Amino acid sequence: MVMQWLNIMEGTPGASNVSDDASSTVVGFTGTLAERITASIDKITTEYLGAAKPHFVAVGVTMAALAGSYALWEIGKGVVSYWLAGPLRLGANIKKYGLWAVVTGANTGIGRVYCLELAAKGYNIVLVSRNQEKLEVTAREVQDVHHVEARVIQVDFATGRLQDYLHVQAQLQGLDIGVLVNNAGIGPEDPATPFLDNPPDAQSCLDQINVNCASYTMMTRMILPQMVVNRRGIIINISSIAGDDYTPNMAMYSATKAFSNFFSQALAQEYKSKGIIVQSVMPGPVMTKMVQEKDKKGLAIVTPEDFVPPALAQVGLRNATYGHWKHALYMKRRKMGNWFMSLL
Known about the structure:
- By secondary structure, the protein is an alpha/beta fold.
- The protein is 57% helix and 10% strand.
- α7 (202-230) links the parallel β4 (177-182) and β5.
- α3 (53-88) packs across α9, α4 packs parallel to α5 (132-146) and α7 (202-230) runs parallel beside α8.
- One of its GO terms (molecular function) is oxidoreductase activity.
């Protein structure tokens, strides 16, 4: 109907003049309205701020400039960390830190890929987990693909027994360990539910603490002294985005991962002068057995093979990282949303 009217108008004498007049009227009205709004704002601010108005304007401009600068800084930091660190080799030269890497939770998912990536850099691998059969499968893969030595240690960290750690320590005796990856973990129930159902019972609570917190502490305490003596070493603790921002309906899991995150960042400061690098890695949804069903089709989901290389490339560059740019973007958006909600 509109197009028909326009076609008719184009063929009507004087239609062009009518159209031009209408356009002029609209432009004039819009300009008048904008002027009125500007004048009203100016009148109100002058009335209430008086002589202080120029100072408030200066503060506003300064705050806007600072906000813009911060946004540019965050974007630049993200590009360098998640896109350029690998190709430009901006992180630490991981190869020079020792001969062996120890990886817990090594049989599948993120742990398995860390084993393969570190083996590709020339490390011999000690794989630690509770499933002997899966450990041996991954160990053979590491040996066959990268032609390095691989050893397995079967242990269930959920028990929390000191003798289990003494058993692990005995098998690591004499190895020049350059990298420790604490990746063992027990995830939240799926679907996520409030605390009294997630974990489902008291024993599950203890298991999650023992694996997600105690194993990180004890493995670090076991291997860190050697690193301090050698004045070189890398400790990578796998936390979670749930440990960077409190997460309702997985309170227990979120708290244990917050422990890992803060433990890592404190250690990074304490032992930096000793030549030790400590990195907290906070993944978002990764396609492993721990991923929530609701996240499997989300835009932020990545595979372990996509996740580990950029995270490893940031060792020595970032003490705390989300690992993958998708997870970084997801968390920036989530934190901004939380901030806006806090203003309401």
